[in-house]
Amino acid sequence: SLKALSLQNNIVTGAVFEDYASAWPGLERLNIDNTRLSGSIPSNVITQWKDSMLYLNIDRNGFSGSLPSEIGELTKLTTLVIFGNELQGSFPDIGRLTDLSKYYEHSSRLDHVSHISFLLVTEYLQVQGNSITGTIPATVDRLESLAEFVVLSTSINGTIPWGLGKLQQMQKLSFVDTGLQGTIPYELGDMLNLRK
């Protein structure tokens, strides 16, 4: 059965999940970045990949509706990319995605940032251009493997958590065009691996 499919940077239209994905029950890698696909993401399709999916990239398409809660069942997932879609609503519980090392979320309408505290082994975390709201959770200091944390053009507010200073693997920390306010925590000076 099909294990990997990449359609990146093609002009492919239609509702790929509804029309085709049910024929790929053991799929491990799906890259449909910038293919102009649209439609919803049915929960039953995600469920069939719960024991196989490692890499899921749906960047720069026209997917709409909510992100199915079944995303939280993809326990082998290491990379999740959901840039540039019309997804909205609450982000599903991803506390079981203990292998997720790369998470990129740009230009969606998912509505809260609290889910990032569950990305325990994440190395790269980008949240950009969203209507995402809320504060950066204090529990972000649990992300001990985090090397890159970028928050750009969001409605995230509140203060910068001092606990970020505990993240000794951090190489890039960027907050641009957000609602953050207050002082820069002194503890950020403990992040000795930050690069220009």
Question: What do these coordinates show?
Answer:
The chain is built from two helices and 15 strands. The protein has an eight-stranded parallel sheet with strand order 1-2-4-6-8-10-12-14, with no helix packed on it. It is elongated, with a radius of gyration of 17 Å. 5% of the residues lie in helices and 27% in strands. The longest helix is centred in the first third of the chain and has 5 residues. By secondary structure, it is mainly beta. The N and C termini lie far apart (45 Å).
Strand adjacency order, main sheet: 1-2-4-6-8-10-12-14
Task: Give the distance, in angstroms, between the N- and C-terminal Cα atoms.
Answer: 45 Å
Question: Could you spell the SSE succession in H and E letters?
Answer: EHEEHEEEEEEEEEEEE
Strand count, sense and closure of the main sheet? 8 strands, parallel
Helix count from the secondary structure assignment: 2
Molecular shape: elongated
Strand content: 25-35%
Strand elements, count:
15
Radius of gyration equals 17 Å
Binned, the helix content reads under 10%
Q: What are the segments in which pLDDT stays under 50 over at least 5 consecutive residues?
A: none
Look at the helices and sheets and give the structural class.
mainly beta
Give the mean pLDDT: 83
